[in-house]
Amino acid sequence: MRTKTQIRRWVLFAVLCAAFVVAYLPIFTIVANSFRSEAEILAKGFLDSVYTLDTYKKLLSNSEFVGYLKNSLLVSMASALANICISTFAGYAISRFKNRLVKGYSSLLLLLQMFPLILCAVPLFIVFRSVNLMNSYTSIIILYTATSLPFTTWMFRGYFDEIPQEIEQAAWIDGCGRFKSFLKVVLPLSGPGMASVSIYCFLQGWNEFFLANIFLMDNAKRTLPVGISMFINQYSRDYGRLSCAAVLAMIPTFIFFLVGQKYIVGGAISGSVKG
Questions:
Q1: CATH number, position 247
Q2: Membrane-crossing residues (predicted)?
């Protein structure tokens, strides 16, 4: 019996290793190709190549990649901040106030979440052109904030539902109003939820391609996904710079996860109320 159990464990371990290799092989390939020249990517294998940083140097010095990176950071962080400022109040209202108006608003959010964004492209183009917001970061920030609001509002509602109302009531007894108790009691306890929403909104803006490609027509204002696509031409593919750009585009996301991980994992609310 023990031998059969060990065999099953080794088989399971081998299957998991194979699944790991299959799942992460594209990432390993991109990282390896980013250190190889264009000629070696097309003609040589991984073991026969010479790995250098020349492609990274060319990408950072002879292209507009740094500008694309700054544009994506600006748009993603601004939309995440605006989304948090709005969705915190909306999520708190849905969580604490129970009436027909609030229920209808929450149902409307679910309907908006299911609405395909591509159907709004032409009307949005006409509206933003009429108010002179085409080719502007403001238009993209507004769109990213609006498209993420339904989901982030429901996320905050779930976190606020887990915060016992007895904590707020205790603050009211001490002289705090509802707004003051919300700022000083509820928001500090919803730190993990705020970190989750921040990561979600940041990634939405960081990876979005469709809206940025339509509303940002100036090459100097393009975001990173649109800028990376510029390395692909009709008759050629710059695989070296594509791989370098893809690797560098993953770094801010990786750092963002490392910084926000402790807030996501932590149970800030547990033990707050003693029954």
A1: 1.10.3720.10
A2: 12-32, 73-95, 107-128, 140-160, 239-259
What is the per-residue pLDDT for 272?
Answer: 39
Confidence of residue 36 (pLDDT cuts 50, 70, 90): confident
Please indicate, yes or no, if residue 30 is contained in any of the structural domains: no
Query: Is 227 among the domain residues?
Result: yes
The answer to whether residues 246 and 34 touch, using CB atoms and an 8 Å cutoff, is yes
Least Cα distance to 196 among 150, 253, 257 occurs for: 257
CB atoms inside a 10 Å sphere around CB 99: 8
Domain span holding position 83 = 53-265
**DSSP annotation string for 227-241:** HHHTTB-SS-B-HHH
- Give the tokens for residue 166: 């007895």
273 part of a folded domain: no
How many whole angstroms separate alpha carbon 261 and alpha carbon 270? Answer: 18
Residue 205 corresponds to which tokens in the numbers above? 């803006």
Domain count, the chain: 1
Span 226-249, pLDDT tens digits:
888 887 775 567 778 888 888 888
User: Is residue 226 within a helix (H) or strand (E), and if so which, with residue range?
Assistant: helix 224-229
Is the residue at 195 inside a domain? Answer: yes
Structure tokens at 53: 């940083």
- Rounded to an integer, what distance in angstroms lies between the CA atom of residue 220 and that of residue 66? 10
Whether the Cβ atoms of residue 155 and residue 196 lie closer than 8 Å to each other: yes
Give CA separation, 158 vs 87, 144, 190, 194, 274, in Å.
12, 22, 10, 12, 21
Asked if pLDDT for residue 268 goes beyond 50, the answer is no
